[in-house]
Amino acid sequence: MSFFIEVIMPLSLPKTFTYKVSEAEYAFIKKGMRIAVPFGRNKIYTALVIDLHQTAPTLYEAKEIHQILDEQPIVNEVQINHWFWIASYYMCTIGDVYRGALPSALLLESETIISQKQEALIDEATLTDDEFLIYEALQHQSSLKVEHIMGILNKKTVLPVIQRLINKGVVTLQEEIQEAYKPKLIRYIRLHKQYESEANLIGLLDNFNKNANKQKELVLQYFQLHAQEKKPISVKQLTETTKSSAAIVKALVDKQVFEEYYLQEDRVNFDKNKSDNELVLSEIQKITLTKIKDKFIEKDVCLLHGVTSSGKTEIYTKLIEEYSEKGKQVLYLLPEIALTTQLVSRLTKHFGNKVAVFHSKYSNNERVEVWNNVNQNAASAQIVIGARSALFLPFSNLGLIIVDEEHEATFKQQDPAPRYHARDAAIVLANAHQAKVLLGSATPSIETYYNATSGKFGLVTLKERFGKVQLPEIELVDLKDSYFRKKMKGHFSLTLIEAITEAFANGEQVILFQNRRGFSPVLECMSCGHVPQCSQCDVSLTYHKYKNQLRCHYCGYSMAKPTNCHVCSSVDLETKGFGTEQIELELAELFPGKNIKRMDQDTTRGKYSFEKIIDGFKNREIDVLVGTQMLAKGLDFDNVSLVGIMNADNMLYHPDFRAFERSFQMMTQVSGRAGRSEKRGKVIIQTYNPLHNIIQQVTNNDYEGMYKEQLYERKIYYYPPYYRLIRLTLKHRDFEKLKEGSMWLYQVLKQNLSIPVLGPEEPVVSRVRNEYIRVIMVKIPGEAPLQSTKKTIQKVLNSFDLVAPYRTIKVTVNVDFY
Questions:
Q1: Hey, is 260 helix, strand or coil?
Q2: Which uninterrupted H or E stretch holds 316?
Q3: Residues 611, 753 within the same domain
Q4: Residue 82, domain CATH
């Protein structure tokens, strides 16, 4: 009888694959284990077992597996089912989901090893220079990796050379799987067994000669530490306490006074953070918590619509405490890594090492440790805080998911696939675990608020700020009028400068918001009007003064700032528009003695860069924080009295049906950073259009007015929540071929679907990385069958792929496009 396993490959493939195993392997392997399998000619990949059966594949001969990588499953069945749902709903392959879900350290790939053929007789005269260099290197080393050969030849394309050496019988290839994750081992010491008796111990201390005073001192210090701590003592702890070197410890180990041993330890530990302060809720917070619990009795999902600084985090903490005491796992999703920094310090004070953190700024090894702890339902990962990728962790006992700032667009993955929305996928995951979901926001997304008001979700509102602090006073500055009356200094109105000066006089801090990084988005020649463009994309280059370069924010292309125009050679070049970098420099000129810091994508690339900036601002070392949308997301600073929005208009006029909703959310959220303690805060919004509806709604904190107005427009123009959107993006280097192919796809979709299909149109940026782009939008009415519509679209895409001229056109599908 033959035995088989069904596996998912970490490749963009829609199918699962069948491999042959022995009877013993069949008895040992469980669903959710990783298996190294051969795939293609000679590659080895980490596949995941999703089924065991005895049915041979009909279309191909099943290969045998390479090796079993796990002793226990690292993925559970609920997760696998959830992955298949994501693949089906978001129209991507199961391989994409598997590759996106697992930390890369668990996705081992084979490395090609090149070694010399032992028995071969080689005529060195027949080898070219490059071939001889590789041959010579193999005389000194038993094997080489492809990257080593690149270094030896100083070339990137080395595969043709290797292929020629294989053809000549000089070398052979083999594939080797390398384990990427290494557990962290800490070196500990203990007294040697022979000194356990008192007599031997006294003899040891007496036997130290005069030259070994430091060794004797270290042994005495070890006894003192051992008596105090009553727990294992690490070499690091001993050397730091005694201010001695590791060499003295080594000498005592060599003398067999001490013996070494190693213990595995988690790389991230929050035990030291825990404090015993009891969390006390205000009366209104207690009432809100009770309402949420009541809603959870009848509904699985509840929206907490609480104004900024209403103390939502304290309510979440109390709720987490209750689920934690029941022994349930809790997932706390945040839209931005910057937010996890503040939240981790708040939650670890309360829960200590029950908290684990999972996001892309953590190293591979740290992420694997969190994955393993969640999989084992360990106490050190009972509460997981993370960005959207934390949704894929192997929960087995999930009780509650909190999605904070649920309106944020960053919960939607854009590239690469799977292009899932973490909020919606979290609701499906919670349903599989029979867990509850709490969505929290001061400015809920229109879809969520629609679901809450129509009875699909529970709704709890909290309209009072914590400590009954008033919402900030919002003042509008008309930029048109200010420029006309010469009441501007650079990009600062005199009103804003006066308010900043007053805040400084009171010892308070300021936040300035400009949703554009860099110094200036455009560098223009004043003689001929030429603007430097990216050579690979249809966008102007952004000027970054700090590095004195022009940079493309789409593909990363950069060039030094030109001294004269590339077209007419004029030296009269001027910057137009402004970004965070320019605001920072202008502020430094206006307030030379103040500490000004910038928080945007350029300043937060390092692992701890968020923490440094946020801690510096919280500890009042920084006077002004200038930043992009990172600042608008739930950060809590008690000494900020003033928030300045430098230009409210550049958010309003994006060619996007969500532009007004997003502008309202962004301005309300960033305004909410002001006056979060006793004193009422102030917000100054600079705009060319102070009478714009959205700006008036932000000023009056009128969420309901914005919601009703936008909902009315969405209904007329067929947008969510009344219609679902699927966006098809086509890319190709040949403009004519793309134009032809996109028209073919549009016409076939139009023939097969009796719903609105728009396009094919050129987006605002119609070329990125030398690839032209066309977009087709499919609008699916709420009453239309979703799955059968998607199946039709997929069939059309499959047939598009079979048309020979269009096979090279890349098509990406984005469901529920945001």
A1: strand
A2: helix 312-325
A3: no
A4: 3.40.1440.60
Q: Reduce the secondary structure of 507-555 to three states and give it as a string.
A: CCEEEEECCCCCCECEEEECCCCCCCECCCCCCECEEECCCCEEECCCC
Residue 693 counted as domain residue:
yes
Note the pLDDT tens digit of each residue in 135-167.
888 888 878 877 778 788 877 677 778 778 877
Q: What percent of the chain has pLDDT over 70?
A: 91
pLDDT per residue as tens digits for the range 194-226: 776 666 767 666 666 656 677 777 777 777 777
Q: Considering 254, 283, 305, which residue would you say is the last residue of a domain?
A: 254
Q: How far apart are CA 150 and CA 89, in angstroms?
A: 42
Of the ranges 118-127, 190-199, 618-627, 677-686, which is most confident? 618-627
Residue 808, in any domain of the structure: yes
Q: Do strands 329-333 and 398-404 pair parallel, antiparallel, or not at all (unpaired)?
A: parallel
Helical (H) or strand (E) element with 226: helix 213-229
533, exposed or middle or buried, with CB in 10 Å at 0-12, 13-18, 19+?
Answer: middle
* Same-domain check for residues 427 and 297: yes
CA end-to-end distance (rounded Å), the chain: 51
pLDDT at residue 276 tops 70: no
Q: Is the pTM of this model over 0.85?
A: no
Tell me how far CA of residue 463 lies from CA of 24, 469, 763, in angstroms. Answer: 63, 11, 40
437: in domain: yes
DSSP letter for each residue of 771-807: EEEEEEEEEEETTS-HHHHHHHHHHHHHHHHHSGGGT
What is the C-alpha to C-alpha distance for residues 539 and 532, in angstroms, rounded to an integer?
9
Residues 485 and 617 in one domain: yes
Residue (of 180, 179, 177) closest to 42 by Cα position: 177
Q: Residue range 191-196: average pLDDT?
A: 74
Query: Is the domain of 601 the same as that of 742?
Result: no
**600-645 residue pLDDT tens:** 877 777 667 777 888 888 888 899 999 888 776 657 777 888 999 9
The alpha carbon torsion through 424, 456, 698, 504 (nearest 10 deg) reads -60
Q: Which domain holds residue 121?
A: 110-177
Q: Which of 472, 497, 813, 446 is nearest to 662 (CA)?
A: 446
- Residue 427: which CATH number? 3.40.50.300
Lowest mean pLDDT among 114-118, 299-303, 659-663: 114-118
Specify the DSSP class assigned to residue 638: T
Look at residue 184 and tell me if it is in a domain.
Answer: no
Write the pLDDT tens digit of every residue in 800-818: 999 999 999 999 999 998 7
Residue 268 has pLDDT above 60, yes or no: no
Same domain, yes or no: 449 and 355:
yes
When divided into structural domains, the chain yields a total of: 7
Q: Scanning the structure block, which residue is given the tokens 């041979």?
A: 56
Contact between residue 699 and residue 668 where contact means Cβ atoms under 8 Å apart: no
In this structure, are 208 and 157 located in the same domain?
A: no
Whether residues 248 and 380 fall in one domain: no
Q: Does 798 lie in the same domain as 763?
A: yes
Averaging pLDDT over each range in 171-185, 347-361, 381-395, which range is the top one?
A: 381-395
Which of 543, 560, 577 is at the close of a domain?
577
How many beta carbons lie within 10 A of that of residue 126, not counting itself? 10
Residue by residue, DSSP assigns 417-461 as S---BHHHHHHHHHHHHT-EEEEEESS--HHHHHHHHTTSSEEEE
Token pair for 103: 């930390």
Q: What is the pLDDT of residue 664?
A: 94
For 65, 277, 398, 429, the CA distances from 321, given in Å and listed in that order, are 45, 14, 14, 21
Residues linked to residue 597 through DSSP beta bridges, in sequence order: 625
